[in-house]
Write a structure and sequence with these properties.
mainly alpha; about 0% strand
Length: about 50
């Protein structure tokens, strides 16, 4: 049995629709030390990326 042929056949037989993306709630995260540190790191990274 040729595995390539088998996988191609399986791909055509089991074409399932892609699930819709998960929508996350837009609620703010609580202001904990971890969240604040992550936000600051995110801002620093993007500031550095803009500078090149």
């Amino acid at each position: 049995m040729c595995l390539r042929k088998y996988t191609e056949e399986e791909a055509t037989v089991t074409n399932l629709p892609e699930p819709p993306p998960m929508l996350l709630p837009s609620a703010e995260l609580p202001r904990t030390q971890v969240v604040e540190r992550t936000r600051h790191r995110y801002e620093d990274i993007h500031r550095l990326l803009e500078k090149g």
